[in-house]
Predict the 3D structure of the following.
Amino acid sequence: MNHLAIIMDGNRRWAKEKGISPLSAHEFGYKTFKKIVEYAFEKGIAIVTVYAFSTENWNRSSAEIQVLLTLFQNSLLKDVSSLCNNNIQVRFIGNIEKFGDSLAKGMQECMELTKKNTGGILQIAVNYGGREELMHAVREIIRDKVSEQDITEELISNYLYTKGIGDPDMIIRTSGEQRLSGFLPWQGVYSELYFVEKYWPDFTEQDLDKALEEFDVRIRRLGA
């Protein structure tokens, strides 16, 4: 497998079952994120894309949103040094400008600092929505005055946030939900889908191994 994508779902329901604050659950989820991403690269996966914050997540409570933004600012961006040491390139995909000057600048600096790393690519979808991405691409194509005959699948792909990155081979979603919720609708048309009952904080390296084993036995016809 070259490219693995993950919808990290279920933090709040996990917190409810554990009797802890939903806000604290995101910290546990972040620890799982670091553990699983590191393990995926150790397994030889070249690209890992995770759904960290959707455009719909702005509808959550201001307290929860602040916790998530603080995690991005104080944890994720501070982990860049370890990512550099592991030769990992970081890319944030989505409309990051909405996060405000400080966080958006930090994300840009993170991408700039790691852009020459060649050991793997970590894409983090933040303020990301699949329909928003497609609308953004259409606006850019119109702005560039692309002629009708020049519009191809390859051209559209080059206007997406994931420009230059191959489509995911498999998309994993935790928490038992069996839908993509706006995650990579263009890129995921032929991705193998794998749904896990566990909530994200309980997802382990062994669970990832099971998903990779399942991928290996699936027959991918890709429409042929």
Summary: The CA atoms of residues 167 and 187 lie 5 Å apart. Strands lie at 3-7, 47-54, 88-93, 120-128, 170-173, 192-195. The chain has one domain: 3-128+168-217.
